[in-house]
Specification:
Number of strands: 12
Largest sheet: 6 strands, antiparallel
Shape: globular
CATH class of the largest domain: Alpha Beta
CATH topology of the largest domain: Ribosomal Protein S5, domain 2
Helix content: 25-40%
Number of helices: 11
Oligomer: single chain
Radius of gyration: 19 Å
CATH architecture of the largest domain: 2-Layer Sandwich
Structural class: alpha+beta
Order of helices and strands: EEHHHEHHHEEEHEEHHHEEHEE
Amino acid sequence: MMHCGDISLSVPSKTFLVGEYAVLERFCAILLNTSPKFRLDCSLVGGSANSDNALHISRQSPFFVLVHSYADVFSHYRLKFSDPHLGSGGFGASSAKFLMAYRAMTLIKNEKFNISKTLEYYREISCESGVEGHAKPSGADVVAQYSGGVTYLSPASDPKDIGWPFEDIAALIFKTSVKIQTYKHLEGLGRKQFQLSGKAEYPALSSVIDMAYQAFTDKSSDLLIKAVNKYAELMLDMKLVHPDTKTILDELRKSQDVLAAKGCGALGADVILVLCNSTNKEQTKTFATGLGLTYVSSSDNLSSGLEFVIQ
């Protein structure tokens, strides 16, 4: 093991365009990775050091498990995590913290980094700390935040940045006032919630994700609008939409500027994504904020994936 000096790492905020819940069964997903970015500063100190962050989070957190499993590696580093969203949730703070800490660990140990190995470890410790019989985190956030840009995830291929090829439409990302703890939500999520009229709905979700990916391939904004609206509809049918989110979506769709809208992540509660014409972004922002939403970012602010600097 080598102490290589101070390390500063950053990863983007993630938002599911389509694919939340579907990724729990290893189906595809498309995620937007945008600014503002999360940051982890690992400061080398002379003696032993404690990570304040590790002392004030759930012991089930992958970050907590990682830091304590590699206590010898981090024993001379003080860790400081910076969340641009101030703990409001919804943009992948937990996965960001884990990913950056794992990368820091490999740098300190002078080991080669491999995202597949990282994901395997993330799923392993998530399953160990989870509740038997309930849904476990997919790790989609981890891979997307590592990759950056518009990340297309498929179990059949490596993650890839497919960019934002639509000149005529933009994706606007808003924060609600609701905060859902994803880990607790997944612990209480039974497979029966993925059933509709006795039929598994995963294939339906997968079909819509394929439609969205085809939209990127064909640069068809109309097809993307259709896919996002259809995914939102399926989430509602499957009773995987928070009541407050449904109310907001109903109000958003009253605006002629809103082409598509859906909740993102667990119960679509924390984050709302809106598609609008590129020329109507400001009007759409004004309308959405008038409903109590807070503007955070957009497809104009796509960000690179994991970055680090060693000082």
